[in-house]
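Trying the structure run again after the queue cleared.
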Amino acid sequence: MKRLKPLLIAALAALLSLGAFAQEATIRKNLAERLPNLPPIDEVSKTPLPGIFEVRVNHSDLFYTDAEGNYLIQGSLIDTQARVDLTEQRQQKLTAIAFKDLPFKDSFTIVRGNGKRKLAVFEDPNCGYCKRFERDLLKVKDVTVHVFLYPILSADSAEKSRHIWCAKDKGKTFVDWMVRDVTPPEATCDDAAVARNFEYGKKARITGTPTIVFADGTRVPGAIGADRIEKMLNDAKP
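Done. Tokens:
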């Protein structure tokens, strides 16, 4: 009997695995047939909610469905006991960027105070939300900011990025423009870094500005206020 027990456990595990595979296949088949405009499904996985499955598409877009794919839900799955947005938590993991792997040679650095805390940000010089973010960032002390110029809005954005990148003092020229509306003076140099940022952003699926990356890899799309910046800097653990 003792010898049979491990075999029974292995057999049960195999049956459960087959059942899960069949269930996933059913969800994939039904959703693909019924919703032909749905992007290809990357992954189907269980959620903590019994009978509800996560459907992941486009790398980090999340939907929820039942075991037969009869219904599709778009929105946040919230754990009310823990008061945690499970959807947001999951997307943060899916979109995280390894901070140490960022192409820092194509950025410039602004240091405030002791600079112990770190963040990186991809910004378009003509982005209004980026300017709001920079004004709030002025209130944050003891931080090192790695700025990646990411001109995605217009040809003028690319021109301003070139002038900022080629400036003698990149950080001052950038902040003067973003916060004080002082137009960057014309300057020329090897500005291939800006083009490389654009290519990196496409690969990393950075689709808007500002996009902030904290030292623990957490990515935040959009402008956030000084209070939230402070909290995320303090919470970030590389």
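The first helix runs from residue 4 to 34. Worth checking whether this holds up in the mutant runs.
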